[in-house]
């Protein structure tokens, strides 16, 4: 049986993938984050077809990740991250760290990130919201939450 709607699974990873799980969406979010927030800018940067870009932008707007804001009288729109979208950028930053560590090659990372608070080039590190200690695969137990369902996606 082929599953086509991850949004109905009792799993936060699956539900997130339902919103951004195909390759174009994270790249669109990246572009909007760095300031390429108009249709033509995104299309030129990604080399994506107008049809696919329109579909992906509509999907991200429908899910409350991006918001359309008019900028011309035609009307034309630019896209801005919502609060929900800004939190997804945090996820993208974790992906950047993984990609920089495992895929950047000898040339090093293609982009660096300067932290506003300290002014230093830095990277994202996952930490516990309660004690501040780093959180990695071996540092957590997965427990069923109030919305858990059956199967490995619910909890172990």
UniProtKB/TrEMBL annotation:
Q: What is this protein called?
A: DNA-binding transcriptional regulator, HxlR family
Q: Which residues form the HTH hxlR-type domain?
A: 11-107
PANTHER family recorded: TRANSCRIPTIONAL REGULATOR, MARR FAMILY, TRANSCRIPTIONAL REGULATORY PROTEIN
Instruction: Tell me any Pfam family this protein matches.
Output: HxlR
Region (Disordered) spans which residues? 137-156
Question: GO molecular-function annotation terms?
Answer: DNA binding
Any idea which UniProt keywords this protein has?
Answer: DNA-binding, Transcription, Transcription regulation
Where do Gly residues bias regions lie?
Answer: 146-156
